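Deliverable D5.2: sample structural annotation.
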Amino acid sequence: MILLVVDMQKGLVDEDLYAFDTFMERTAQLVDSARKNNVEVIFVQHDAGPDSGMSAGDEAFEIIDRIAPAEEEKVFVKTINSCFGNKEFRDYMEQQSDKRLMIIGLQTNYCIDYNGPLVKTILNNYIVNMMNVQQSLSPASEFNI
């Protein structure tokens, strides 16, 4: 099993997220449990580019302290919506013999881009568990809904 933690960054995680307290508690529990049980934890961060306030070196870019990656854990950076757009990430995942993938984090409906042909092809090689209690979205008002 691999636990994939998507976009849990200081500039994205705030109390306006849907079911914030439950989301944060369960996210931390899953990451802690994975670590205790020797399940690989992989983090993906979004880099919005220079001068965005959400790029390498910016406080907002950093993964939240509560689940910050351990030194030995992998961190991949994406510059487009889908983490599978990162070739290093795709290559790493293809090398893994364990094809069970649990995905948690923010905006996973967008940041995994399940409907793209590349991602559909890649995910066909995995047993994917999307924990519905471990996904959160920005408030509807942010999208004028």
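Annotation notes: The chain has one domain: 2-138. The first strand starts at residue 2 and ends at 6.
The annotation will be released with the project's public dataset once the embargo ends.
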